[in-house]
Amino acid sequence: MNIDTLILIFASTVAAATPLILAALGVLVNERAGVLNLGVEGMMLVGAVTAFGVGVTSGSLFLGYVAAMSAGAAMALLFGLLTLTLQTNQVATGLALALFGVGLSAFVGQPFVGLPIERVPAVPIPLLADIPVLGPALFRYDLLVYLSIALYAAVSWFLYRSAAGLRLRAIGEAPGVAHSLGYPVVRIRYLAVMFGGATSGLAGAYLSTALTPMWVEGMSAGRGWIVLALVVFATWRPLRVLLGAYLFGGVTVLQLHAQGLGVDVPSEFLSMLPYLATIVVLVLICRNPKTILLNQPASLGRSFHPDG
């Protein structure tokens, strides 16, 4: 295995991790607010087909990304109306949203199957991209890769360095107490849920315009469920979300490159690796109840009504 192959694998890992980072950071924020939305898979697929459709018809990937974020936020708003206003069960509603998104994206995406779209271009960072070995490995990605790192920094600052982030975490821990102190619990939860929907839509857009620039029904391939597991794996901490996403991205890329590297393993087993890794990690974490509860918002998944 030469250095060019290693750089290719590393770059592929970063690209594979990017949609996981984008979606997981949004999920982290809305779970920190105490809301459990299991509809990530559906929101990612709706974002993917929206970005692809708008990008193909308008010729503008920027408009496609804006539309994808709007579509994801609209899906999340629907979830919020049902769970935060009408007080439906968050788990059941999230599962319904995931199934709805899968079906809606398949229906809307029928005219776009087989159509080409221009891949999101790489944006090499001047001077740094020319450094031997490190340049191709670290500084020659598209804007969404850089945005995922910036989003991590922004979410970390918001949660732990801002007054608004402190209020959001307080609502996730004790919404009743936060309400008694005058915090608009429901409004903040709405904003958190819509932020998670927007980032999930953006993650889906990355799938259909950058990672694999095409529209295929069900192209998220379970990544939405991996995102939900990733947030638990990270114990609701942004840095662990980032590192965990690269870990899962590496496993995904490994199964794509293994046979090319001469590893004699059935392709079906290699395809199972990302999901097998997810299960193994969750089992290891759940062995210790104190570990799984570390940093978990106390009110996660529980309904709250100001008059309740």
From TrEMBL:
Signal peptide, first to last residue: none
Molecular function terms from GO: transmembrane transporter activity
Protein location: Cell inner membrane
Domain of life, source organism: Bacteria
Record keyword Membrane present: yes
Keyword Acetylation among UniProt keywords: no
Residue ranges of the TM segments: 6-28, 35-56, 62-84, 91-113, 143-160, 190-208, 214-234, 241-257, 269-286
Membrane topology: Multi-pass membrane protein
Pfam families: BPD_transp_2
Protein name: Simple sugar transport system permease protein
Species of the source: Povalibacter uvarum
Taxon lineage: Bacteria, Pseudomonadati, Pseudomonadota, Gammaproteobacteria, Steroidobacterales
